[in-house]
Design goal:
Strand content: 15-25%
Number of strands: 19
Number of helices: 15
Strand order of the largest sheet: 8-1-10-19-18-17-16-15-14-11-12-13
Distance between the termini: 36 Å
Largest sheet: 12 strands, mixed
Structural class: alpha/beta
CATH architecture of the largest domain: 3-Layer(aba) Sandwich
Radius of gyration: 25 Å
CATH class of the largest domain: Alpha Beta
Number of domains: 2
CATH superfamily of the largest domain: Ribokinase
Shape: elongated
CATH topology of the largest domain: UDP-N-acetylmuramoyl-L-alanine:D-glutamate ligase
Length: about 525
């Protein structure tokens, strides 16, 4: 069956992608030219956003662009023209490892436009076959002493069939060995990867999948060779999409809710009431971060149930939430079972739950979680210390539940080996057998529900710090608590929004000197 959606696009093999492009563009050179210009423009726009994360406020001085004979090379040339328009002092060195004589007509057209706009800032080289040493000398002769800040690979793309042949293999070896390049990017697919990949591939920081997200980018064997993946939507799936596609990527459409006006007669109860349960005397910060994120998720009301020793300080820091102080276990500072007497009268008000952040793993805390889960049938998110086999293995009876583990938590929870995480079918089997949704945090984050695996390509290394998962729990929890919201879509909204804001944090602050809570400033 053909599936339509406004926020998920399919992941296809390179062979399927070629077939789909044929159905969209056919043999019409003007339609191909239009698509190439959309791809090049989108690539430049995305690069212009990612350059500050890698270089700060320093403008790039020089680009090394590797151009093949096919349309990938044309995409790279068009992107370069736009980038040179933005950075007026930048120079560019273009390398044609397969020569200029055989380039496709549209690539030649791209090159003519580039030369007409920026001829004085361009230098060219067509490589002569040789070993890596001779290729290295040709590259050095081309760039002289210039500092290369950006290297863009537009050589092979999805048409690749192994093995990498000379002189492309030697070129890849040489450029991979150039240590001072600030940002390395591939157009569509890094040269050397494909439905069948070589043991050598162009080394990248980013891969910009143009029009279609290609399956080799998401295979476990290639995970360390793709860098961060960006999906550039060119409108190839504005109508139908190929049938029987169980894997997909989130698109910008998942964040449309941020640009929709709310009903003028709405009030706070219109947007739901999220209950957050967690915290302990030993870990008071996690629950506070979850609540702070939930308050910005769009949910109308947030009530947090926390141990009495942290309630007053938390309320002072986030007075927008309602804080319910509960008795705590003196042994571990977690929630005591007697606190259920305060929770039970309020349960009917909840439209969604987040359980686990900073909660601790004591026996009494575990019993507390199980009792809460028996009291309500509203959507629930389990995170952190609530991710225990004895809790997750319950009969959910059709109740909507999402888990948000990182890799280590999922291994503990599922009793699988680290190697199993590389295979999406293992995560799918776990999610199906327990009748719940798994949001497996990582690079990329995978949302697994039923027989589908959806990838969120938003976010990056700036999220590799304590607290980012607590914020994610609050955002996703707030979205699933919205009355009438589609559960699967709400999970995707929270995941994408979290990563989208993290990208903007990294572009403004860099990847190092940033706090997890800085994400809140970019939502």
């Amino acid at each position: 069956m053909v599936v339509k959606t406004d926020y998920i696009h399919p992941i296809l093999s390179c062979a399927q992608s070629r077939e789909w492009e044929e159905t969209i563009l056919g043999k019409d050179s003007e339609r191909q030219w239009e698509a190439m210009n959309r791809a090049g423009s989108a690539l430049a726009d995305s690069l212009n956003l990612d350059i500050p994360e890698c270089m700060g406020k320093r403008a790039p001085e020089a680009a090394l662009v590797l151009v093949g004979k096919g349309h990938n090379g044309g995409d790279a040339i068009i992107a370069l023209r736009h980038i040179l328009n933005r950075f007026g002092a930048m120079r560019a060195f273009l390398v044609f490892p397969l020569g200029l004589t055989g380039v496709r007509p549209l690539v030649r057209r791209c090159l003519d436009d580039l030369q007409a706009a920026h001829s004085s800032r361009l230098s060219f080289a067509s490589l002569r076959k040789g070993n890596a040493r001779s290729i290295d000398s040709q590259i050095r002769a081309l760039i002289g002493g210039a500092q290369i800040d950006l290297c863009l690979d537009g050589v092979l793309g999805m048409q690749f069939r192994p093995p990498l042949r000379s002189p492309v293999r030697e070129l890849v070896e040489v450029v991979n060995g150039m240590k001072a390049i600030a940002l390395r990017a591939a157009v569509d697919v890094p040269s050397g990867l494909g439905d069948n990949s070589d043991d050598l591939a162009f080394k990248v920081d980013f891969t910009y999948a143009t029009g279609i997200a290609k399956r080799p980018l998401f295979e476990a064997a290639n995970r360390s060779r793709t860098g961060r993946i960006r999906y550039l939507d060119l409108g190839f799936f504005d109508g139908d999409v190929p049938a029987n596609t169980a894997t997909g990527v989130l698109t910008g459409g998942v964040l449309k809710f941020r640009r929709v006006s709310r009903d003028s007669q709405a009030h706070k109860k219109t947007f739901g009431h999220l209950f957050v349960v967690g915290g302990s005397a030993n870990m008071p910060g996690a629950i506070l971060m979850t609540v702070r994120a939930a308050l910005m998720s769009g949910v109308g009301l947030v009530t947090a149930f926390v141990p009495e020793s942290i309630a007053a300080e938390a309320a002072a820091k986030s007075p927008e939430a309602m804080w319910v102080a509960l008795p705590q276990n003196p042994a571990d500072g977690g929630l005591a079972l007697e606190g259920m007497k305060r929770v039970i009268p309020l349960v009917s008000r909840a439209t969604g739950w987040v359980i686990g952040p900073g909660m601790g793993t004591g026996r009494e805390t575990e019993a507390f979680i199980k009792e809460i889960l028996d009291l309500s049938d509203q959507p629930v998110l389990l995170d952190a210390d609530a991710l225990q086999p004895s809790i997750v293995s319950r009969d959910w009876g059709g109740r909507r539940c999402v888990l948000t583990p990182h890799a280590g938590e999922f291994i503990r929870l599922s009793k699988r080996s680290p190697g199993d995480l590389a295979d999406p079918s293992e995560v799918m089997e776990f999610a199906r057998s327990h009748h719940l949704t798994v949001c497996l945090k990582g690079s990329p984050t995978r949302i697994v529900q039923g027989r589908s695996v959806i990838h969120s390509l938003y976010g990056g290394p700036v999220l590799s710090r304590g607290g980012s998962g607590d914020l994610l729990a609050g955002l996703v929890g707030g979205r699933i608590a919205l009355p009438g919201e589609d559960f699967a879509k709400a999970v995707c909204q929270g995941v994408a929004w979290h990563g989208w804001a993290a990208d903007r944090l990294a572009r403004a602050k860099g990847q190092v000197a940033a706090k997890a809570t800085g994400i809140l400033d970019f939502l």
